[in-house]
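Q: How would the structure tokens look for this protein?
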Amino acid sequence: MKHPFFSIQWHITTQCEQRCKHCYLFNTPEGKEEIDGEKLICFNKLKSIADNLVISCKRMGARPRISLTGGNPILHAHFWLLLEYLQNMGIKVMILGNPFGITDKIAKKLKCLGVDKFQLSLDGMENFHDSMRKPGSFSATTQACKVLKRNNIKVVVMSTVSKANMNEIPKVIEHVVRLGVESYAFARYCPTHGDINDMFTPQEYKSFLDLVWSVYSHYAKNGTNFVLKDHLWYLFLKERGLFQPRATNGVIVGGCGLGISHLSILADGSVFACRRFQSPVGNALKQNLYDIFLGPRINEYRNYSRLEKCKDCDLLYYCRGCMAVTHGSTGNWTLADPQCWK
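A: Here is the predicted structure in token form.
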């Protein structure tokens, strides 16, 4: 019997070639502080965090799954040493990065060191995407998808969606299908710096999901896996008669992994329940991750009786909305998800 996974999103650096307008890392005071004063963690400390994860997962009876990100993780001075160290421990790694510098030589090296997936971002077609990220980013991303695929690394494409780019997404989906990427998904824009002008209203978001569902259905047999990442898909599919919640006896069976099967680690070893909003729960260089995960600071995010709207919903154990989007919009993660139309 296979053990369940325990996932870590590990931001090993804040170094990045881009300064994306919607990035939660660069649009918060603590993010700017990290960038201005970042000091690379020595390799021994990186190994210490990796060992911490492996030991903690054994205690949990789970297999570790690591997503290395940043910034651009490849820019970290010890990236390749860390990748080799993780491979020697038998850990498969996914990279959440950007397309700059992805050559056949780099892709072959990534593959040899156990990288099986690489996530890239597309927020629209060329004009919109480059306006959000960096001139040339769309072209570089398209090329990187091709390079990674021909080196047998699975490509995942993610979009950050808001009212600003909702009409771009169908064209993005068509583009990634033509590129033959393995998976596509989107996440909602999280207004970490108080800019809520591009936020969907609940009905606008429901209409957006309806549009995307029709595009997904059109390309359903073309080989790209459309991941229903946003938790409000459960509500959408329920209303369509395509999903029926069942009694779970209080067991979480879907929705956000915050406090359930996931932690985020920052470049300085700080541990967050979720990187997209202020949720510090410990430090992986000073504490055992097992103790952090079962500790009192993270338990507050498991107290679903605090969720103003979700606590009485029949989809509580499937959905719970997005606490990060809620916090970014209202300053309080316990309030109702601002895009939930129920």
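Strands lie at 5-11, 63-69, 93-96, 115-121, 154-161, 183-188, 225-226, 262-265, 270-272, 280-283.

The longest strand covers residues 154-161.

Upvote if useful.
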